[in-house]
Amino acid sequence: MTQLGLQLYTVRDHLEKDFEGTLRKVAELGYKGVEFAGYYGRTPGEVTQILKETGLTAIGAHTPYDRLRNALEEEIAFNKAIGNRYIIFPYLGEDERDRWAEVIEDLKVIGKRCADAGLVLLYHNHEFELTETLDGQPVLDAIYERVDKELIQVELDSCWVSYAGFDPLEYISKYSGRMPLLHLKDMVKKADGSAETVELGRGIVELKAIADAAVDNQAEWIIVEQDYCAKDSLDSIAESMEWVKAYIQEGGKINV
């Protein structure tokens, strides 16, 4: 059954002050797993200890491109030590988006090294991989077409797919069987056309349909994320959990 996790970037302000205490709070709210975006100076042993204490599963780790290129063996060792299987390419800076063909070749190499170590490389999208093209197709599709699924799988950020003007349900179906992780987030559009992330249920994203499709297409984890929180981030993830509980009561199938 698909489980519910949290991308810890959402509560980064609290993690900086109290890493262990924040993870305890995340677990208390009912999240089953966490996706890391840094370890705040903790050793693999310290991370493992707090995961064991709280019962949280290490879902994945967003790992910067430069670390994937220049310190991959260290990242692999750290993730294996904490029991994490998924290493995730999280973002590509604007200054590097004119060299997509080279990035794709890097992904092949990184994916092969991860696979050889028993781990899996995933790519996490924003909107630009859909609005930018490579040889006439969205970059996101070019990545998955040119890199074998044995070397890279999908972490679909459904909110950014929607913001880019594409249908998240079509992308969930398109990459069924290759999409173990899905980011669930909500957003509102501002007057200037930009987006601001909000707590689940407060925005315009078709969350229920996306969550249903993720479960139907055998996603292992649905991961709540909020890039920006207008109020205390722990209050935000608590509110999003209330939406999830209401969704489950209405027939949703996420395991909480």
Automatic annotation (TrEMBL):
Domain Xylose isomerase-like TIM barrel stretches: 23-246
Superkingdom per UniProt: Bacteria
Gene Ontology molecular functions: isomerase activity
Designated name of the protein: Sugar phosphate isomerase/epimerase
Keywords tagged on the record: Isomerase
Pfam families: AP_endonuc_2
